[in-house]
Amino acid sequence: MGKDELLEILNQSIARELSVSIQYMWHHIMAKGIESAEVSEIFEKTAITEMKHAEEFADRLDYLGGVPTTKPTPIMTGGSIEKMLQDNLKAEEEAIALYKKGIKISSENDDTTTRRLFEEILEDEEDHHNTFRTLLEK
Fold it and tell me: In this structure, which topology does domain 3-137 adopt according to CATH?
């Protein structure tokens, strides 16, 4: 795999982070019901973290000579809190798979800095996945 694949997976990662930051922020606003206060705050904090991830990926892509995308992947909004959590859990599962692929591509390109970035963000995504999964188990 070459540099083009590395730039492409960084852009895919930016698009994904943009979409979930919007998705989670809308879920924060749209959450209603008896459990909404706790969950709404989690959605908001996670949205902010995801936007920071988008910025980190964009900074790295720019350094490597790429042009960061401004187009998010599809955004899921609405429904019950349970549906929102299920949508968010799925988004985190997709991120985990994508970032493991990013780690592999970075390693194949002997790019330690990008590999470490993917590893650090993967750790956050696994934490988000665990949070959403735990909330669904309540």
Answer: Ferritin (1.20.1260)
